[in-house]
Amino acid sequence: MNKVQFEAFVIPFYRKFMGFWVLILIFGGVFMELKQHILLGRFAFSYPSAFSVVPVSFGIYSFLQLRFQLEQLKHPKYFVFHQLGLWPKVVLAKFWIGIWLANHLIFLIYLIFLSYFGVEKHAWGLLFILWTTVFLTLIINWMKVDKSLETTISERKLYKPFRHIRLPRFTWLILHLRQERPLLALGTKILSIILLSGFFNSYSSGTYDIRWLQFGTLVVAFLHFPILLEKVDFENEKLVSFRNLPLRISQKTANHFWSLTLVLIPELLFFLWKGPKILGTMEVAELVFLLLSLTVGLLSQISISKIKAFPLQYLSGSFFLFFLFILFGISGWGIGILSMAIFYICIRDPFEL
After folding, report:
1. Structure confidence at residue 155 (pLDDT)
2. What is the C-alpha separation between 14 and 90, in angstroms, rounded?
3. I need a surface site. Which of 31, 159, 210, 263 has the fewest CB within 10 A?
4. Domain count, the chain
């Protein structure tokens, strides 16, 4: 897949359906464990009526993807792609099939995972139905797109957006990630939930103490480094005029805290859902506070490093410092308070951060 395919058709699709993928991540990664996915796969291939939900769901998803793609081709910015109708059919098919595979990649990986249980149950007929459905949706997608490229460009109706909706400033980062960095946000969330699941599953075996989960929280906080870097760049480039407005510490704290809380919703839900099953209430609260405080502390360090032109590699030192604190048994509350202190030191200036 080349850069044009990726930026013109893949990124806009994931950006448009970001809310859907976040819900899938929350329910499939937070509320369900791996063993539950295994039970779901075996149940689906044991009862044909339950299995029917899988190909139907894929068909609906593929239909939504096709409709979005056809709407894209009607947009004036995409009129240039109608020249692709002059390409040889084989070359054009390769071009669009690559886009289709990229837009269905996550769903296809899950279908491959489910197919293992079909093989286990020797449900060859159900497997044939499943992958025939996948193949037919690919063919239909290609035929519809090919027909759209061959027909005359129809007039597109323009609708005025809502002009009276004013979103608070702490929501702007989420909107920016959805618009400009959807795959970065989605990839970070997926990897974060996978890591937390691994740490919690290994902790439930009884081999480790609470420090293991604190270390996992530290890893997840620093895993958000690219998103925090994007936040700092976003505020320094597009919100630079706000630096001319002196803000109180309470205002800046609320803005950064709620902004990062929105970013960390999947991880916080994971703690609140999985934590009470193996931890006490105070231990869950400690992990939630540790994650939020480490994240805002890392944000302040990135911001100062950008302003003072320090190499960002120096931030790895703070990771190992916090790791040593955890290793020597310092409470998560104490580590969180230290991280918040770093944050408050960095926002003392009303014109900074």
Report:
1. 54
2. 26
3. 159
4. 2
